[in-house]
Fold ABC transporter ATP-binding protein.
Amino acid sequence: MQHHDPVGTREGEAETASNALESRLTVAENVLAVVPVDLDGQLHFADGLLALTDRRLLGRTAEGLWQEWALAAPELQLHMNDHAGVGTLDLVGGSGRLARWRYTLAQQPAALRLMKLFDQRAVPAAGGAAEGDDLGLEPETQAPPSTWVLLRLGRFAKPYRKQLLAGFLLTLASTAATLVPPYLTIPLMDDILIPFQNGQQIPIGKVAMFLAALLAAALTGWGLGWARTYLLALVSERIGADLRTTTYEHLLTLPLDYFGGKRTGDLMSRIGSETDRINVFLSLHALDFLTDVLMIVMTAVILVSINPLLAVVTLVPLPFIAWMIHVVRDRLRTGFEKIDRVWSEVTNVLADTIPGIRVVKAFAQEKREANRFHGANAYNLQVNDKLNKTWSLFTPSVSLLTEIGLLVVWGFGIWQVARGRITVGVLTAFIAYIGRFYTRLDSMSRIVSVTQKAAAGAKRIFDILDHVSNVPEPANPVSLAQVTGRIAMKDVGFRYGSRAVIRNLDLAIEPGEMIGLVGHSGSGKSTLVNLICRFYDVTDGSIQVDGTDIRRFAVADYRRHVGLVLQEPFLFFGTIAQNIAYGKPDATRAEVVAAARAAHAHDFILRLPHGYDSLVGERGQGLSGGERQRISIARALLIDPRILILDEATSAVDTETEKEIQKALDNLVKGRTTIAIAHRLSTLRKADRLVVMDRGEVVEVGPHDALMAKEGAYWRLYQAQLRQADEEASDGAMAERSGVAVALSNHAAHPAGDA
């Protein structure tokens, strides 16, 4: 049998696409960036192409069809987004979205390069947002950060304004103390050293006084500098801690669709490394910048007071340095923001691979993931190298200008001394001051780099803080002390972006009633459950609990009365007891044990090495799927919810484990309004009513026997499952008969006693 190499085939198709691109280029048209589009609209692997030239944007589908758009069109915008490991590029024009390309994140570096070049060459449209993703996700703006975004940190500094004022006064005083010694060189040179060279005696008392003044200035500067550094470092650490806490707390309030459009590594990077970067800027570089500004201003005032003409000469390099800072700042600002995005891709690979290491190893994809990390890391290195090239030229240039300025001062100062317009002491003081002046000027130019880094980090932080939840808290929430569990859905509608998922749904559920939601995949069952939990808000109609719209309740108060048992239970790293008591942290050990007994989890917990104090490992990896599910049931039992949601709670376990879980569920649903989703219709026999959904609408409601007698949508679903079960049983029997036949054949060929 002949085997085909899929990698070789893919490379051959890519080469064919590349040749097709070359054939479409006009004379003198240059290709700037190419992205292999390896997914089609249904997220199947494909071999398309997206190319940017200096004249147009070209797109090729897997079927070989080409589209093109001229870059001269001013309304064209290109938006990037990634969701669940799939990258998306949307081309948007005045009439809406013109085209969409999807690709695996292995192509992300190439897509980022194309995005940057497109933004540089295309004229951005005024206004006009990109059309939303099918899931209603909003791509984050890629506009470069402004340095002014750092001023928004002022609200975090407001609680510490007294300490900051004290720090500013200490900085002012310590800077003034450091400017005293150069001024004392004037009388030391003119009144003591130069007269001594001319044959006069050195006045010991006067020298001692000047030296004591120099020592006092040094000690004062040291003490004030230590105090202001320590004080401002304490304040900046607290500002950084507040920024981290506020960002994380705000992140927890955002809806599920926000997290669906973001990657874990990127969010971790923002809250971790970005806030650390801002903290370092506030504790070190902002203080240095303030000191530099004060030093330059105060030095300039002293220089002008000593000799205005020489002071003007001193300031000659200043306009050139300011112009260089202005030019380089723009490049650094966009560069550091891009570095942040690229670095988040590196952390995204880690965040994807480490939690999914079992899948990586199961499919022997270690090399693929290593190559993916290598690609992201190499692109990160490339972006950093490009930025370092700019920065490495800027810093020596500033140093060169300051050295030239110092030479100008020396030359002009010597000429002034020769003409008798200033004394040697004045020139010496000028040189001492000018050294400090240019040192601070050079230091300020270096701070441009860290300032732009901090601005890029602050922008990414405020992108989170500026995001408003689409599940808002009510202005005047209704108190929710007691819940009976009556649920009424009236003309409910919900849409993801422009795609309607729930339409015109009416359903009433009585307190203590168990409802089973059934239907084909994509019929809207999970979406309806998410709406009841208020993970999303309805776009039409209302959902009422005990006669009150759930949007009038405080979100946290409402969800305390809702218990949720998921198909894939999530356990946190910690002990069994901590996971059971997650919804009620103050629960006693007796309450935890009672919940575990009711969930049929007590026996297997006692068999663990440390019982309820046994660590379950990250995501509960130390337990089987059935054991994790029973712990999640115990967790729901402990909070004693009046409304219970069961989302495929027994679909991922074997038959014996399902029986144990079903016993636990029987205890859980007693006296509670229960809504259960299950693909296996046999598990919903105990439901009071079954609600059959199709394409976001309720098509049938009733008990099992009545719906079977009706022979409608539910009957067809049930019959399809019976046929599938019969086929699986038939296949199993055939396999068993085949195994017996093989065994008999082997026995006949090798009877007992044969050698």
Residues 1-14, 122-142, 747-755 have pLDDT under 50 and may be disordered.
